[in-house]
Amino acid sequence: MKVDDRMLEYDETDPISIERYGKKLIDMTFADVCDQDDIKKSNIIRETADYEIKHENKKRKGGLGEIIEERYFHYPSNNDARPDFDKAGVELKVTPYKQNKNGSFSAKERLILTMIDYFKVVDEDFEKSHMWQKSKLILLVYYLYQKEIKNRLDYKIGHVNLFTPPEEDIKIIRQDFEVIKQKIKDGKAHELSEADTLYLGAAPKAATSKNRRKQPFSDELAKPRAFSFKTSYMTYVLNNYIIPGKNTYESIIKEKTEESFEDYVINQIDKYRDHTINELCDKFEIQYKERRPKNLEAMLTYRMLGIKGNQAEEFEKANIVIKTIRIKNNNKIKENMSFPTFKFKELTEEEWDDSTFGNYLRETKFLFVVYKFDDNNELRLKGCQFWNMPYNDLEQEVRIVWEKTKQLIIDGLKIEVRDGKNYNNLPKASENRVCHVRPHGRNANDTYELPDGRRFPKQSFWLNNSYILSQLDKRFIE
Fold first, then answer.
1. Chain-centre distance of CA 140, in angstroms?
2. What is the pLDDT at residue 477?
3. What pLDDT, in 10s, does the model give residues 83-103?
4. DSSP secondary-structure letter at 11?
5. Of 400, 383, 374, 354, nearest to 475 (Cα)?
6. 117, 236, 261, 361: which has the highest count of C-beta atoms within 10 A?
7. Is the dihedral of CA 113, 119, 123, 128 positive or negative?
8. pTM reported for the whole predicted model
9. N-term to C-term CA, the chain
10. CA distance 19 to 369
């Protein structure tokens, strides 16, 4: 019997029929899918021996997706450039989500769409691009990842829904596509970073960290990368388009505009240029008594963007983090920029290419909101800029500090107490142009355990104040 002659339980030309049949997967495990299908009768599966064992192997990328394709929808898994359900224009994606400690849900990882062909993509238009054909209509099969479950065939499927990005998202996805394409045209495919863009990322996609491929406008070899929807975007999709009954965040852009998203944000903030903090608080009716809220400047940023709360839809989707920069009237910056603390034991078990801190900087775009002290020592808004760490700064300078920190902890951190204070040999700001390590706990008693069993105050990576200053637009320090 030919593949096209098989008896299907859905209409492969109709997206709604495909989704309706797919929804029967809800509450099933991948083992259930295998059990309810007689593999002996299948005429599309090439490897029937030890099928479950082979697909349970976590090293087999796409193994769970293959089970849904072959054992449930009964079509052969392949690397065809066309959508999986070609007659309906539907792509199938099987992706994990997780439940957080506070009960909320989030995507566990980015959604890989298709590999980037550096030579072909530079000649593609967005609407006709291979990427868009693979992502404009997706059947999302979300399964619940649980760390305590050891056999991944026991993961349970929680949601099955057709998804197409809404119009306001498509505009930003199109802009992201053009940003990635232009960087390749500029001969900088080797400098691509997920933080370059908002919703659509250029994710590393290689068997090993050493894999490289040619690019069209430079002799420099580049990492293989794939178009993907970022983890932050997939979390938003899950909580606002997939799980029923969820409320959406407020949107910054509430009506059609010809401006890019970044230009729109910058222009909105610039309307309040030279206002003092107190003037902005008065304008937006933010009152506080004795204790100044730690997130006051972030609150003001949201109000300037027309957001009543402290979360903006586009920022959540794009993993944009607001950072306030305060410039002294002598054009220096006093504060270094902190990041979340790291656990000593966990850091020593990581590799740089998939490290927590490295990935944070690779995947996060920052909105620097800049204030400057005037002659009366009042902070006045000077504007804002979007920023993500340049590739070379991250992969050279930051990597050096990270690797040195890891090795020092493995070797046994040298700690000396002088005058009641802890001194150590972790990287200092004077040793590196970009970053350093320093304490970031509530006090000296706020500690984590070192691999050798000693307790030591919590530490984090910090960006040097001089480095931050070097990254600011010149208009802020003139």
1. 18
2. 83
3. 899 999 999 999 999 999 888
4. -
5. 383
6. 236
7. negative
8. 0.88
9. 75
10. 44
